[in-house]
Amino acid sequence: MIIVLGLVGVVGVKLFGILKENRENFRVVLDNERLHVVTVPAGVLQANCILVADKLSKNAVIVDAGGDPGKEFLSVISDNGYFIKYILATHAHFDHVAGFSKMKKRFPEAKVGVHISDKELYVDVPKQPALFNLPKMGSVPDCDILLKDKQILHLGAIGIKVIHTPGHSPGGVLFDIGPGDVLLTGDTLMMGGFGRTDLWGGSSKALEKSFSKFSTFPDDMIIVSGHGPETTIGYERKWNFYSHFMKFKQRSIPSDTTRTIDREKKEDSFVSSSREYL
Ligand SMILES: [Zn+2]
Ligand SMILES: [Zn+2]
C-alpha cells in the first residue's frame, strides 16, 4: 500500500477500497446510443484500464493498461465486435503501460500513442519499477503516434481530443472524449486529489499551469481518472482543487508570500471559474 500511494501520490479516501477490490471492480461508465465506456483496475498498482467505443462505427480505443484487464473487459470488445484502433497512454508510467505488449499482441492493428514529451520516458519504462523495488517489467511495443496538444484522433464520429497537461509527467495528457462527453485524466487528477510531481520529469509549476485547463469543462462532465472511482468536474470543482492544491502550493512557495482566497480568485483561473463554491 505504501508503494502504491508512493507512486500515485493521490489524496482520496475511496481509493483504498478500490485498490482492495481488484478486478471485481469492472464498471460501465457510459452506454448510450453513441458511446460505450467501461473501465477496470489492472496491473500491480491497479490503474484504471479504459475502453471507449463508438457504437456506430464499432471503432474503439484502449486507454492505459497496467496489466491484463481481464475477461469481463475483453468480452465487451468481442461481444460487440469492436475494432481496437488505438492503444493510448495518459502518460508513460509503468503502472499505466505495463500491459501494452499484451494488448498489442491481442489487437495487432491498433496504433500505440504516447505524448511526444513522454517519448523518452516510454522507451525507458521497463526500468521504472526498480525505483519501487518491484521486478523489472517486459518491453513495451513501439510507439506509432507521438501525440500533440490539441490533436484529435477519431473513432468514427467520436473525437478524442488530446490536451497536454504536464506536471505529473512531462507528457501527461487528458483525453476529451466526444469531445465534451467524458474526460480521461490519468494521474493529473483523481477523485479528491492529483498526482505527485517528484518523479521522472514531474513539475509542480507545470501541474499548477495544467490545472487551469480544467476551467473550461462543464460541471456535469464525467471524469475517469488513472486510479480510483469516477467523478465529475462539478464534484472536483467543489471538493478537490482548492483545498488540496493550495496545501500543495503552500509547500512550494516562499514563506513570505501570502496566499489568500481573494488572491487565488484573481490569479487562479480554475478557482475564479468556481466562484460560486467559495
Ligand atoms: Zn498511476
Ligand atoms: Zn503516474
Note the topology.
Elements: H1 2-8, H2 14-21, E1 27-31, E2 35-42, E3 47-54, E4 59-63, H3 71-80, E5 83-88, H4 94-97, H5 100-106, E6 111-115, H6 119-123, E7 145-147, E8 152-155, E9 158-164, E10 173-178, E11 182-186, H7 204-211, E12 222-225, E13 231-232, H8 233-239, H9 241-252, H10 261-267, H11 269-273
Parallel strand pairs: 4-5, 5-6, 6-7, 11-12
Antiparallel strand pairs: 1-2, 2-3, 3-4, 8-9, 9-10, 10-11, 12-13
Explain the overall architecture.
This protein has 278 residues and is α/β, with parallel strands linked by helices. It has a single domain (2-277), classed as Metallo-beta-lactamase, Chain A (4-Layer Sandwich), CATH 3.60.15. Helix content is 29%, strand content 24%. It is built from eleven helices and 13 strands. It has helices at 2-8, 14-21, 71-80, 94-97, 100-106, 119-123, 204-211, 233-239, 241-252, 261-267, 269-273; strands spanning 27-31, 35-42, 47-54, 59-63, 83-88, 111-115, 145-147, 152-155, 158-164, 173-178, 182-186, 222-225, 231-232. It has a seven-stranded mixed β-sheet, covered by helices on one side. Residues 1-6, 9-23, 253-257 and 267-278 have low confidence and may be disordered. The structure holds zinc ion (ZN) (2 copies). The site of one zinc ion has 5 residues, from loops. Residues 46-227 form the Metallo-beta-lactamase domain. Residues 259-269 have a biased composition (Basic and acidic residues).
